[in-house]
Records
---
Amino acid sequence: MRNRPRVAIHKFSSCDGCQLAFLNLGEALLTAAELVEFVHFAEAGPVAPDEKVDIAFVEGSLSTPHELERIRQVRANSTYLVTIGACATSGGVQALRNMADAGQWVAGIYAQPQYIESLATVSPIAQHVPVDLELWGCPVTSRQIVAAIRALLFGVLPVEENDKVCLECKRRQQVCVMVSKGEPCMGPVTRTGCGALCPSFGRDCYGCFGPAENPNTTALSRRFAGLGLLPEQVAQRFLFINNAAPAFHAAGLKAREDSHD
Amino acid sequence: MTEPPFLFLPRECFQALLATLAGQGFHCKGPQLHDGSIVYAELAEASQLPRGVRDRQAPGEYRIETGADARCFAWANGAQGLKPYLFAPQEVLWQAERHADHTQFHETLPQARPIAFIGARACDLAALALQDAHFLQQDYVDPYYARRRENLFIVAVDCSHPAATCFCASTGDGPAASAGYDIALAELEEGYVARAGSARGQGVLEQLALDPASAAQQDSATRQHQQAVSAQTRRLPSRNLHDVLFAQLEHPRWEEVAERCLSCGNCTSVCPTCFCHHELEQPQLDGTRSDHVREWDSCFTQGHSYIHGIVVRSETKFRYRQWLTHKLGSWHEQYGRSGCVGCGRCLTWCPVGIDLTEEVAAICGDANE
């Protein structure tokens, strides 16, 4: 067999859910294994974290001093570094601690906090090493993974999907939950890619794919207030899974300021 | 030519209309209540119609109210009408297959079963005429659209309960259907005053062997129509706004509306005349085959104005301006009329309730007089 591109899947601070997008490929995973060589993929079996690879998929955020060292090694060992999911791409839900006193949390939760070695703040991968491609989502979908692998095998970067969820929601002809039910849907500022999953079940988008291009968070916050949300409730719509993504972070803090006015 | 006669279809005979259409091979689609909205879906039984249902619409808001009366078409519209049935939101245009020494292309024309669309509104028909003008232009016929269009049978229902967001009377497109249908109905308490608009429609009505509508029934339908006209409070100027809009490209209102606009594309997605789309490849993982896909796009996306590394309309004010100046201005040059049929969907389904008629009034000055 000809030389297949070598692939590693690395886990940092995360729930492992994004790696499932590989395992959930089903039959396509067998095709993928013929096209690339999974050198390191602990969740599936192969463990060789220090091997040089063509593509490193990185799940999780940087949350401990050890992870800061590891990511530099991963970067040095990889031709392409692709972040998968909200944690790796924007810091994830754990970045909420950046807005709190992390030490106090640890002390409040653990009986022996001296064994917990975590950084005071959480950061996305791109804050410490250069990233070639970011895939958003909590979790990413198998479709995104397939598109990324295929495009890289073709020698191009995949087309960036940065439209709003609304476009996909309307293509699927879902009834808008904000207009018909007054739900505080994040779709109008959130990046597409999920297939408008939540609205298709009649619930509001909670922004797990992060900010879309050109997001008007100010207008949406104002609309949420009009729907009856209190400023702190508006803040929590933005300060959730992608709370550290700059557009959502700023919108959340702005809403919080309003609650103190 | 004599006017087609007005016939009367008793309410309990609506099922016979569906059965006749089904008997002629049509797949009936009609309005139903789903997820808190009127949506068009497979309609096998008249009992699926939204009986007693009213819609209350305002900019950014759509609510359903249900009553006990027998009327099934006493609402204005839902987010979508005919458009998705002809201009598919997403479809494969062709497939490419890679072999060792050549690439093969496969046609993927839709296997469209003839559809009978029940409950089209006058605004939907006006929009259909515009979509036809776009997709079926002489030398550039879109075969996917054409395939679905060729066998479409339309049963229009005159609008008797326009929403607060409707302004079809001002654009000259409603509220009663005037062309483009096979059968048109005006719904009364006891049933429907029916008229044929084509030989096919005539044939279906003949098969139903209906009695003529009485003078009183015809009067009721006329009165109802007049009420539906006078109930509309919003309006767009009926004149050609091309010159006035293009003279206002630097109007401060563009900036102001951009502060409110989410640039989310809901307005263009629900607009029954918007036809913008993008195309993309969906290759199989093994790289041997690829679907070439077309899907609805919007002038409110970044990709819509992306050319070779540059986004021409990076800011929302330019995107909103593009939409409005095209829809109400340059459409006149392209299609001989404005692209707005007064259905009001872009007001209702805008999550932040931006009112097109208000924006036009602000930008064009006298417009909302």
---
Amino acid sequence: MKLDKDARYTKEHEWIRKEGELFIYGISDHAQDQLSDIVFLEPPEVGDSFAQGDSIGVVESVKAASDLYLPMSGEIVKVNDALVDAPEIMNSDPYGEAWIIKFKASDPAEFDQLMSPEDYEKYTQEEE
Amino acid sequence: MSPYLPQTENDRRTMLETIGLSSVEELFEDVPEQHRFPTLNLPGAVSEMEILNELYGMALKNSSTGCYATFLGAGAYNHFVPSAVPAMASRGEFLTAYTPYQPEVSQGTLQAAFEYQSMIAELTGMEVVNASHYDGATSMAEAAIMSHNVGRGKRNKIIVSPRVDPQYRQVMRTYLPAGQLLITGDEDLNAGLGDLKAMLDGETACLIVQNPDFFGQLLDVDGLAEAVHEVGALLVVVANPIHSLGLLKPPGEYGADIVVAEGQPLGAGLNFGGPYLGVFAATMKHVRKMPGRLVGETVDVDGARGFVLTLAPREQHIRREKATSNICTNQGLIALIAGMYLAYMGKGGMQNVAEICYHRAHYAAAGIDKLDRYQVISSGHFFNEFVVQCPKPVDEINQALLEEGILGGYDLQLDYPEAVNQMLVCVTEMNDRMQIDRLIQVLGQIG
Amino acid sequence: MRNQLEPLIFEISSPGREAFTLPELGVPEVQLPEGYTRQQLNLPEVSELDFVRHYTHLSQMNYSIDTVFYPLGSCTMKYNPKVNEKAAAIEGLSQVHPLQPESTVQGSLQLMYELQEALKEIAGFAAVSLQPAAGAHGEFAGVLIMRAYHESRGDSKRTKMLIPDSAHGTNPASTAMSGYTVVELPSDERGNVDLEALKQECDDTVVGLMLTNPNTLGLFEEHVLEVCETIHNCGGLIYGDGANLNALMGITRPGDLGIDVLHFNLHKTFSTPHGGGGPGSGPVGVTENLAPFLPGPIAAKDDDGYKLVLPEQSIGRMKAFYGNYGVFIRAYTYIRMMGPDGLRAASEMAVLNANYLKARVAPHFPVAVERTCMHEFVSHGDVPGTDIITLDVAKRLIDLGFHPPTIYFPLIVHDALMIEPTETESKETLDAFAVAMTRIAEEARTNPQVLHDAPHITPVRRLDEAQAARKPVLCYKG
């Protein structure tokens, strides 16, 4: 399982990274591996606001569908539209090209509650 | 021993030995003893000959459309079914297969469904068609739910014309129990398109109209889709009777976002109301919100073209409570039949049959309108159904028609209290000139 | 099986070719309304022989009950008697319009009434509506009935539906459509509903519990009476998923066990053909106190004969007209030909066949829960110590002339292989299937590639489902 050392993680297998004033969000390598061939992404719209833990979209593979939950509250600033046309990027480069959204956090401190890469790795091992 | 149970005494004994039991009864020890092996108070088994005789007896208590000149439509239509269609559809390989979960051994069902989807797309002028719903009414209810989902659950108003089939509106209300969504527009049974357009707003998920409407009339759809789209809502068109599309502009061409219809007229027969076929078509833009199964084209490991069920994550077995619908078993065989009917009739046949319906209906309407005490009150254009103002209650007239071997039209007063003594008359290719002349003559005598 | 590709009907079309014949118009033509007509209609143009060969070829690319053993778990792929088809095609029954005056459809209404009566008796209910068109549709009706019942009592705080984790996927979907939230209940190690978990959830917000019995592991719920009582004690209702009724005819009656509302699958239990995905028929049966809420209209009988009535507090119509009538004729024919003893024998033999096949298959593909099963059982379809997965086993079965069982369901069993032989299969067929399974288990160790590459005999081999979903091609584009 690949990890991005700069990111923080959730139990739903999403990651978040700081990028200047903004935060950037995607699904983890473990998530894409579990889903297998990802075929579809329904992202939120720019300008949508979410509370912590809200569902912001859906990602689908051939045999499964998974809701995307935002572990922080905030407003969507940018959506990676390239993924809508080529969702398979989420399989090949989950921490790089396959970022899903960038958002402005209402409470940046929520970031600190997320799991560190080490904790997340332990969590996924326990889960299996 | 039943013909459907092949286990001989000897087989049973051997099988029980293998399992390690001495009697069949022992298999059921998990069933609470006081409720085990109830006596079923049912009539004893009969032979094939006897059950057929019993059913022939029931059939004799019916008056079938095969023996009566039928002018009844109103949601179910009497059309000719070419012999080759049931001959092919009743092949055991189609009839006794199930949902094509294993595509390699289901290419027959899958390809036929893909062809059905393609032909319905052409007929309705839409981009995607699902593999079927239960009937036109449930298709419409699902269209309302889909519109709500397309609006991300934020638009809670469904506007429906009072001139949509009353049973369809009832089914939609069953599907959407009070409180979940506001269904409006048909409180005033006289509401026209202008009134409905005036109700459009930012809360509206969709506007549902039927074209031709339940009274048979063609809608003036100019500017309709534009008005609906201006508020961000969807236009849902119920395209009944579906044969009208052999002649008329398809809803996709005038901006419909979802088209639903009753597919029964496409070869399925009347069958006292079922099994029928829920046609459901939409634009590609909304395909991920679409309920029901979809068949798509792909390739196999060798690069050969093949067909599979696709976009399954929308469905209940994966999305469970978040699915677009709970539908699982659909009307596969009836969709197969409809696809066969469209392939058989083809380009020329669908146009030709629609023209016969149209011209003969107008011939009938003109003849009835000439009668002293009857008046055709359909204003504007109609396809093959029209409304006749009768001099007496419709059920009385129908009783008199029956005695002359004619199954009369639908009593509109059953659904529209103001439609006193109004009969909805339907003419198809099954009604030749002699039948129509006879109808006119008998009506004249009753009047 | 035909293993050659067939062109699309559009690809064999040729301009000017026709299959149809129609009568002369015979009346004067009327001007078509300008602006309302369509410009083109690009449907295929084929001869009748083209048509017949095309669909014959397509049919030959299917596995079906008529051609092979089809042990698709949870679907009850039993033999569909030919007399059923003849019965449903009787002109006086099939060529009847649903809106004809009641006096002209007394035979059709009688058949509906008699079928309702038979289903009531078989499952132990006070009333039945035949209207729902399929199992999931009947299930949705059932949940709406539960909702209407609670509402009629002014009991509005009930919002949660308890659903065991072994349930069909339609259960949660139907619940959500009815506006309720789903609470999933775990199963215990014997495959029953976990009673402790159940008791913890039981309070005055419970709408009810949706119970599949036998459950999707093919096991009879050992605590069925206690489960029903626990739910009833907190004011909830029990919904029974009747998809597995084929194990219970004449064995026990769901109504007697405490089920309040149940859907039947006429296309499973009562031998009507599955049609490549439908039509089914999903009547609902209910206890006395739920009878007023049934969808309708339903058939009733009085001194004047048979008629259609809508129950007084009905949830309304589930579909137009009265249900999948053509399916009713077939199911009624089956019930009459079997009689009460035959129905019980059918369930007995369904369960005997399943247990026999389980005994033969389990040494190679261990079952998930080792108990006497009902009409079906669930094995693990992978082969430990090899890289063979359930999918490979399923595809290899195709080569050996069998339709694969249901795979990867229920979700609570890893690598599930859900096998339902039904009662209409002979011991010889079951033996042949067991031999095939044994052979596959051997091949997994000796020649795994033949499994990975399976199937070999079909017109197409494993298909690229990811491509189909990423770039959907859902219509012929010309």
---
Amino acid sequence: MSGRFTSGGAEAAFEAMRRELEEALRLSGPLTFMEVCGTHTVSIFRSGLRSLLPRGLSLLSGPGCPVCVTDRSEIDRAIELAEKGCLVLTYGDMMRVPGTSGSLLEARGRGADVEVATSAIQALPAARENPDRDVVFLAVGFETTAPATAAMLRQVRSGGIRNLSVLCLHKTVPPVMRVLCSVPGLKVDGFLLPGNVTVVAGEGGYAFLAEAGKAAAVAGFEPEEIMAALVDLVRQAAAGSYRIRAYRTRDVPREGNTTALRLMAEVFEPCDALWRGLGLIPGSGLRLGKDYARFDALGKFGLKSGAGPAEARDDGCQCGKILSGLLTPPECGLYGRACTPLNPAGPCMVSSEGTCGAWYRFNRQEAERWQ
Amino acid sequence: MSGALSLGHGSGGRLTQQLTQRILSRFGEARFPSASRRPDFQADFQMEDCAFIDAGCGACGSEDDGGGKTAVSIDGFTVFPHDFPGGDIGKLAVCGSANDLAVRGAEPLFLALSLIIEEGLDVAVLDRYMDSAAQAAGEGRVALAAGDTKVVPRGAADKLFITTCAIGRRVSPHVLRTSNLRDGDALILSTAPGRHGAALAAARFGLDAPGLTSDCALLWPALSPLLRFSGLRCMRDCTRGGLGTVLCEWAEASPLGIEVYETSVPADTETAAVCDILGFDPLYLASEGCALAAVAPEQAEECLVALRESPLCRDAAVIGRMISEHPRMVGMRTRIGGMRFVDMPAGELLPRIC
Amino acid sequence: MCLAAPYTIKEIFPDGSARAVSGGVETDIRLDLVESPASGDTVLVHAGFAIQKLDRGESEELIALWNEVSRAAAAAFRA
């Protein structure tokens, strides 16, 4: 896609877009948008797009990284299973997320069997090759990733595999955005909606944004796609009329992937979920439905569900406020001191896509200047 | 730093730096024979790819530090998998150590080789790795001067660990080191970065990339023609931690900043595809046949021409320059005309889904 | 969140998996989540699963906006 619209030179084309933003901002006044998705956050930093934004346009990073929002108690449970002798498989992103006492990476260093998978489907051969062991797939991710877990579970069920279970931490995006929209003092005029979550889940779940007077646009992850969506967002805010459009190179159905959604509905049911830093959000999680409940690692190994003692722990981490867009990373007392990518205190520093991780990695000098 | 060491401590970024400093601090006085105890000497020893010594007078450090023309480097190889497209652990063990000399303007001449073998390794497999090590040594005219083998019980090593020590002679008229860096110096990259890391990651994570081979190669023939340039400041091969780490180390080692032009960095299609799939940044993937060179701006063009003579360096390009702005930081001018900072990778690179 | 890359399907296997290629890199993907995939189809792949077919061509909204702005920029330049 790079260069599709910028054959006369990307710099000149983006400069034209920047001027367009500037013009539109003149009508609307200063605006603040939130990119919901962590992959947007990184793309905005990595492409240098942030440095091109005109004065008066601010971007906040929202709660859009499923790793960032995994609660400590949930990491603790996965470590507990690994240390009990289970073979735990999970995505690489999860390995560095700190629980109450360390991460899965550290547990692996102590001898626990934790393996990195690049797809849920890899849990099947792992279970087959280790018939005498319990294999646990630590399933994390939003609507984009949840269908993969569902497809894997359907095979587990039909294949009569007994030594594979799932610790299900899947979450969905619209409920947390509803919560954000109700946060008092939240100064967000519009949302950049996640590209790949909507590829699966469609745009229907975001209709409430227009009613709440918020602009919204879907974008892919190339700077061309993000820039176009930002221009649209500013225009919506300036005109006071809201309608979701999608800025992707390749067209996909607005209703999402109905095959994937059907499979999710067959395997999962909504539940309340703990979001690190944000607390319990009703209806924002997915757990295994009754036909699949026997593959739930919580039940199989008699683990407690819900908040652990970690919930009560207060170490000064401001991730909740940062995820809500109420604070920027340098405004947190731990940022860059007690909390760095090498020694992350909170979820926002864990992933390079986390708000604080991305700030530290790509914008440290700017951040230091502000401190 | 406390508690157990992690794989991240071995992956070349910030954690490795911390570990190295910690070890060096323990040697203190013992690191320096009396002849070479100079104030600027320590930084040189820590930051560069190989050391210059003079065994005759017991000095360590480069000549003008009271050292000698003999160059020494040492490197351990624990690559997984042992076989990868474009090479294997045997070839890598020779190239890796020899390249550490080449980037300091020293011709690799001798090799010391230590093998830690896990009980149960098929001797035919060992033969194969030693044949490729021998072939690389032959091509580079590096003679095997000393060696050792140890066999350890099953589980005490992963099949085969190789440590090589390369010994050579400094050919460059002046000592190449990061403290030579000057405002305005051009930064030349010899080829597209990250191919070794991408080839290994592809092999590890079940990706089949027929066009992607490790760039593992001896750099001396490609780099030695640069030594005649008086404006050549320093060179570094972009191994663990990749180009991004080398850039950050250079910026941190000098009072200057670095500006890199994204569109000038040579790119490799398959490496980019592997990165897109696994969520890696090519800037942080290891190379084993890719070097960064800093040269005075007026000699950059000639240097580039000389470098491109080598088949390994057809894509060599000026990718950036030393600047006086944002000291100790690496900034990148992006394709769309924006600006972002490049930081060192933190810990082990893990594939990502988000 | 959610890294994904477009792949072209090369060969479909009876178990619901397929060999697919992206930027010269080949791997096995799962087709459980897309309706009637065929060899030659381009699909968006996330975490080893095709999550959508990309058979509808380019998205007009993106093209329209860039064209409008670059025309405006070109017109402003001429004026």
---
Amino acid sequence: MNARTIFRFDASRLGDLLDGIAERGYRLLGPVAREGAVVYDELGGADDLPRGWRDHQDPGRYRLERSDRNLFFEFNMGPHGWKKYLLPAEEPLWRALWRGEEMLFEETNVDDGKRAFIGVRACELAALAMLDRVFGEGDFRDDRYLARRANLFIVAVNCTRAGRTCFCTSMDTGPEARSGFDLVLTEVAHGGAHFFQVAAGTTRGDALLDALAFEEASPADRNLAKRLLDEAARSMGRHLNTGGLPERLAGSGEHPHWQRIAARCLACANCTMVCPTCFCNTVVDRPALDGRSAERIRCWDSCFSADFSYLHGGSIRQSTGSRYRQWMTHKLSSWVDQFGASGCVGCGRCIAWCPVGIDITEEAERIGEELS
Amino acid sequence: MKYHEIKDLLRQCHGFATLCEEDLDLMAKCGVNAVFREGQLLAQEGHPADLFYLIRNGKVAIETHVPHRGTVTLQSLGTGEVVGWSWLFPPYLWMFDVRALEDTRVISLDGKCLREKCEANHSLGFRLMKTFMGTLVARVHDARLQVLDVYHSPQGG
Amino acid sequence: MSNGHVLTPVATEVLSVRHELRDTATLSLLPPPGGAPFAPGQFSMLYVMGLGEIPISLSGDPAESGLWIHTIRGVGNVSQALVRAIPGDRIGVRGPFGSAWPLDRARGRDVLVVAGGIGLAPLRPLIYRLAAEPEAYGRITVLYGARTPEDILYFHQLQAWKESARFHVRVTVDSGADDWSGNLGPVTHLISPVDFDPASVVVFTCGPEIMMRFVIRLLLGLGVAGERIFLSMERNMKCAVGFCGHCQYGPHFVCKEGPVFGYDQVAHLLAEKER
């Protein structure tokens, strides 16, 4: 646990905290309620947060509903992940152009400036740490990703409520944020009181808290927060038995259940779009009409698309079953070989946003079952 | 002298590596040297298959004639390889033509005599069968790989 | 890599073009400035203005570091444009990327090279190395299979190697016309333990996946250990540096851990059916 001091402040002062971050030059990004979902977007301040909303999620189902508790962070998460700010869904990488007879390449600058993520959940911190490994820790580094990453201020929020599609405890990523944040908040409503507990994870976080001069949290406050987190951990809507799962999935190539999933799966790629760790991308070349230049765009791609595995003459993975198998075995099995941990953080987005309600925890369980 | 020479050649043949001295003796006694000039037929489709060959030196083609396509070569066989197994199975008729692609020296073996010995001595028969099955399996794999046409250029792209 | 972002190509000039086959050409390029010398088996990414970028293995002599040579078979938009290139054309290049043939493993041992179709291209730098110092190895055998006599890549080069008498070169075709008097049959048919000691030979193979599966099983049957068999794999690639996810092959990224793999690394994947 964090050896840093834990402070508390009244919920009415959340705005002061966000303003303090903004005053340090960070553009605030965080959850807003829009078009029936919580999505991540620009925040003007605490008033833009989806206060009084909570989500209700089930396989193939997501609803926002009003809550009389009027909390800032009673919802869990919507379809957006923070990856959209670090690996934009569409991003120009460079432009090739003719200057006379010569071909030139002009790189597109990354100038997103300093940005603060407000309300990052524990599972999402785990997803960010995973993206750091993919783009920042191999033999090759993605300078664009790293430039954006270096300019982040991260305010985590502990989950005091687990959704019906949540299983972060199975993946050992939550519900409590353990690392990877500048500040971590726990929202507590008890009796008549509504306050936040806050602790810093970095010296930048310390500096901000020093400036705001919040009072230290009492042992009673801390107990209250701890009870909420324990309760959230106990009320996970889903569970995934991860013991031996990577090995079981790696050897499951011919399991008949893949075909049963394929019969339901629409190969729509929703699961890969909402997954906070799915990083696969492709490039598109957009030539100018005069043929004198062409722009190279990197955009999100999905292993569910036919083109994804295209190799002179056709796709290696022709069937939906084979694509779903690729997705799930990568996420839960080969990811461990590649990056030292599961690619699944237990956020449950793929379950809620699957139009036919395919549940990764249930399917992994089935595939894991021995063939009779 | 001829007999010992033939036995040595049989022993060196990879396909016969599993046979014992006694078997090699017996086979060598069924063998004689022969030479085929380029273009000459070693075997002819539909003719009695009483012989088979071990190529000492040279190259032969397994061929057949297809109406409108003419002569089609199915496979070439070279030094150290065994040609022919039709002598082992009824109706003991060659299925294909075998033509020398260049001047080719072979040991010609009396299959008819060998198959009669195999019938009389099942233990010998089993060992010879196993030997020829190995060749057969390799040829079937080759044929299957050929049928797959693996280097074919994909259309479109 | 050069100073730019790993995903940004460097402009280079096509110095010469050699038309190898009906649909295949070999381009000589100036390597990217500051680029690392390439090792046999590695590949680079070639970009054609406005059309896109594809991975192509380096197929030249590694000793000639001043030239990057790529043999390209025109099967898609980009590869067809590259095959049509003429000297003086400008294209983009990044690389070299990927793993190399572990030639050191073969020193002092018999070497068997089994290539099929365009798969001879990624093996050619390795054959140049073998040809440069054949005395460092035991018996060297190069086996090559093509579809028809018209599809035999580097025909004259193969002929020259064959005549050098420093190693065995045998070529076969799957089907040939009447005037073909060479070997006829799949490349597996050329594999003979007369050429090597199965207990110590080191094998390098590249060709269509199905061909490599046949080759490898035949070799295993002859007693060649899987740990001495190396193959080169091919998958869709966009970035070549492990960012895009396209080239995943089981737990491997073909662009980073491959394209050259030890058979033991991928044995379980070769049998896996993607449908």
